[in-house]
Design goal:
The protein has 16 helices and no strands. It is mainly α. Helix 2 crosses helix 7, helix 2 runs antiparallel to helix 13 and helix 13 crosses helix 14. The radius of gyration is 21 Å and the shape is globular. The model has no long low-confidence stretch (mean pLDDT 83).
Length: 423
């Protein structure tokens, strides 16, 4: 077995450019998400409004996901990423104008609120294209034998950008206000667009160009549902994120329970990602490919326990620790899921499989935000978080019993086979 090189993917110049582009995009998106949540809750003081933000994004993201995957598999990936980034810049610019002093002073609150919801809706549509495009582009930049290493660095970059974006968003709200923070997001997105063109155009590996949409979509869905490892990993993460996600309620906890203000709100958001970053960087040195299925189940179980601990805590540092542990566990689980997808997905189906992944896992973030907001409205935020963590634990137990393929999954042979194939 070849010696593990933790920096294998980073030795490829174009992959480093890709990571920089992804960092800027996720940093901006994460900051924008935090700022908008804060602004909407400040306007309404209603936790259900936070759930509506999630609902506005999930509707287009979920309904367009499969179609977006088909488009990605049929088109060149670099230019598609550039188009998505340009469209994202329009959203950021629109949100900036909606939060300027002129607009907030001269327009009714409901008008501003509905404008924000409308741009979030457009963002959900756009996000259905982002995920499959990025997932497919990575596989065209690095050799197959280091997919697992590239997946680790790509996901780590995403999480690093998330933590800095969340932290920056929380602090910048207090220092330069909401509108100027959103203007900064626009500048970052435009910068990422410039660097996107430093990545060369990539070949289209799909041999079925022009395939009818109906047949294309059926093929992608059929592949996922016939692969028990992929299906099990997606289902496990979907339910865990749907019920165990706490991000949508962090502004409620920061303002009404822990009473820590915008800075504390940023730290609560950041602590989740910091935990993920720590474990993700560790996995570049200590691969999690052996007994990957069992490790994934254990990590999601730890995630559920930490979410319950956060819900029950009324002490700020205990809440930070609980969220840190939840992020650490989620980070390992995410690396394993991404590695499974990269290794077991054919090149010509990457867009569609990634779209199914976004329907299972990505959209469940927004649906989870709506579920959390509704549950907080009905039973209170503390009970809502504890309920979500409990559901996560039950899901782990059910998956371990009902899906032995995922439970006993070991990715070592897949990685060795990929190395021999390219050598």
């Amino acid at each position: 077995m070849a010696k593990n090189d933790p920096y294998a993917a980073l030795r490829i110049k174009e992959f480093n450019i890709f990571l920089f582009v992804r960092f800027l995009l996720v940093f901006g998106w994460s900051m924008q998400f935090i700022v908008i949540e804060w602004q909407v809750y400040s306007i309404t003081k209603d936790p259900l409004s936070l759930g509506i933000i999630g609902l506005m994004e999930i509707i287009p993201a979920f309904t367009m996901a499969l179609f977006a995957g088909h488009i990605v598999d049929q088109n060149e990936k670099r230019n598609l990423l550039a188009k998505c980034t340009a469209a994202f810049s329009l959203i950021s610019l629109g949100l900036y104008f909606l939060t300027t002093e002129y607009v907030t002073s001269n327009y009714k609150t409901n008008v501003i609120l509905y404008g924000i919801y409308g741009l979030v809706f457009f963002g959900g549509f756009l996000r259905s294209f982002f995920g499959p495009t990025i997932f497919s582009l990575v596989a065209l930049i690095v050799p197959k034998k280091i997919y697992h290493n590239a997946a680790t660095w790509s996901t780590s970059t995403w999480k690093t950008a998330s933590v800095l974006g969340a932290l920056g968003g929380g602090f910048l709200i207090g220092f330069i206000n909401v509108d100027k923070t959103l203007l900064l997001v626009f500048i970052l997105v435009m910068l990422s667009l410039v660097f996107t063109f430093f990545i060369k155009k990539k070949p289209i590996l799909n041999k079925n160009i022009g395939e009818p949409i109906k047949e294309s979509l059926k093929a992608g869905v059929r592949f996922v549902f016939n692969n028990k490892a992929i299906l099990g990993a997606l289902t496990l993460d979907m339910i865990a994120v749907l019920f165990g996600g706490t991000v949508a309620l962090l502004s409620v906890f920061a303002q009404d329970i822990l009473k820590v203000g915008p800075e504390g709100f940023g730290l609560l958001n950041a602590s989740i990602s910091i935990g993920s970053i720590v474990t993700m960087f560790l996995t570049t040195y200590i691969p999690v490919n052996k007994n990957a299925g069992k490790k994934m189940l254990v990590c999601v179980f730890i995630f559920g326990v930490s979410i319950i601990a956060f819900g029950l805590s009324s002490i700020f540092w205990v809440s930070l620790l609980a969220l840190f542990i939840s992020g650490a566990a989620d980070g390992v689980s995410m690396i394993i899921r991404q590695t499974i997808l990269q290794l077991k997905t054919p090149d010509e189906m990457r867009g569609r499989v990634s779209s199914v992944n976004s329907m299972f896992v990505g959209s469940s973030n927004e649906l989870g935000a709506f579920e959390s907001g509704l549950a907080a409205k009905l039973i209170g935020p503390v009970a809502a978080v504890v309920f979500g963590g409990t559901m996560t634990l039950l899901t782990v137990a059910g998956t371990a019993i009902l899906n032995p393929v995922l439970r006993d999954l070991d990715l070592t042979e897949d990685i060795e086979a990929s190395a021999k194939e390219e050598d």
